[in-house]
Specification:
The protein is of the alpha/beta class. It folds into two domains: 78 residues, Urease, subunit C, domain 1; 289 residues, TIM Barrel (Alpha-Beta Barrel). The protein has nine helices and 22 strands. The strands form five sheets. Strands 1, 2, 3, 4, 5, 20, 21 and 22 form an eight-stranded mixed beta sheet that branches. Strands 11-12-13-14-15-16 form a six-stranded parallel beta sheet. It is globular and about 60 Å long.
Length: 389
């Protein structure tokens, strides 16, 4: 995608900590000014009048399987383009296509498509890496993952994925109680890859051992993991009490009850919660029958579920997740946006480029009305979506 220039005037700029009226300027794809309109540089065209709406850093989804008819496991640039287009309609400017438990060759194919899409561009939300969720997971806590492909952690397999994608391998979710997992965690961290505990039946002690080896992230907290018990705190207990863990939260009121979400927010605060969608192929499409990782999924207005009843991803958008966080948890605009942009950017080592309205960062911007309807989405200074007037 070409890097462009634009001036956004008359906006309520949402920084990680404040909302302030002002102007934002992007030149050659990079933010060059964000502050009071009186001091903004002149002559940067075109000019986009935000009309008093909220101007936020673009939302970043680091756990998303599909949308708009496409799925990361399709292993094609076309599928990733379909995903990018539908995501950009909801304020998302960057995402990590996320794999499921599958044959090694299928995951390699998905990685190859991610690399092509990242280099080519998508015309919508930017592909900034891959999240490998599975196949190194607990069969007991597999959730909507295909048990036929669950296997022990393998440095050799991950090395092959890394050879294809290089630094685009950003995040790996695994169950640390599996044989060989700790050595894999250490290797991934040496490569600069973030390691998440997820789809795991690990004890509290096993999770903390994984943390000592470098795991510092929790995949969709509460879901597909050993829960909190007063004599065995499990994965949830470790996640909530270890300050170093950042936790992913599917903020839809279905995957996690609002009271349980509040517990997470009280324990972790706005700096350690990361809003995700865990969206699958049907996001943006009609209700009906779909597939995820070779498993049949029934999608209703309320949820996406396996035919046996278990939840299987969602059809949530990042904008809706932000709105839910404000309505269900009572958080402020800056806090909700921080959990959907700043925090995910830093979780996968992209904080130097993305996640805040900071001079020198990528010109990835979302413009929302006060109901979180997306008015415009801008990637590298280029308007990729604008709501019809």
């Amino acid at each position: 995608m070409p890097k462009a220039s634009i001036t956004i005037t008359n906006g309520q700029l949402v920084t990680p900590f404040h909302v302030t009226p002002g102007t934002l300027v992007i030149e050659e794809g990079v933010i060059t000014y964000a502050g009071p309109s009186a001091y903004a540089p002149k002559g940067i065209e075109p000019i986009f009048d935000a009309g008093g709406s909220y101007v936020t850093p673009g939302l970043i989804d680091i756990h998303v399987h599909g949308g708009g008819g496409g799925d990361a496991m399709d292993g094609t640039v076309t599928a990733l383009e379909q995903m990018s287009q539908i995501f950009s309609r909801h304020g998302t400017t960057a995402f990590l296509p996320t794999t499921v438990t599958a044959a090694h060759g299928e995951i390699l194919k998905a990685m190859g498509a991610v690399k092509q899409a990242a280099e080519k561009g998508t015309g919508g939300a930017q592909v900034v890496g891959i999240h490998v969720e599975g196949p190194y997971i607990s069969e007991k806590r597999r959730g909507a993952q295909n048990p036929a492909h669950i296997r022990l952690p393998s440095i050799e397999e991950l090395e092959e994925i890394r050879q294809v994608g290089g630094p685009l391998l950003k995040l790996v979710t695994l169950a640390p109680e599996m044989e060989g997992a700790l050595e894999v965690i250490r290797q991934l961290r040496s490569w600069g890859v973030t390691v998440a505990v997820g789809h795991s039946d690990a004890s509290y002690d096993q999770v903390m051992a994984a943390h000592s080896w470098g795991a510092n992230h929790i995949c969709h907290i509460y879901n597909a993991m050993r829960g909190l018990h007063h004599r065995e705190p499990g994965v949830v207990g470790a996640a909530l009490t270890c300050d170093d863990f950042a936790v992913e939260l599917i903020c839809d009121g279905v995957h996690v009850h609002p009271a349980a979400m509040e517990l997470v927010f009280r324990a972790k605060g706005p700096d350690k919660v990361i809003l995700i969608t865990d969206t699958m192929r049907a996001m943006g499409l009609p209700v009906g029958h779909y597939q995820l990782g070779g498993l049949k999924i029934d999608v209703s207005k309320e949820a996406a579920r396996l035919t046996t009843g278990e939840l299987a991803g969602s059809t949530l958008s990042m904008a809706k997740a932000v709105k839910n966080a404000m309505e269900m948890l009572g958080v402020s605009w800056p806090e909700a946006v921080r959990m959907a942009s700043y925090n995910p950017a830093h979780a996968v080592n992209l904080g130097h480029r993305k996640g805040s309205l900071t001079v020198g960062k990528d010109g990835d911007i979302a413009v929302f009305d006060d109901q979180l309807n997306t008015l415009a989405t801008i990637v590298a200074g280029q308007v990729v979506y604008q709501k019809d007037q």
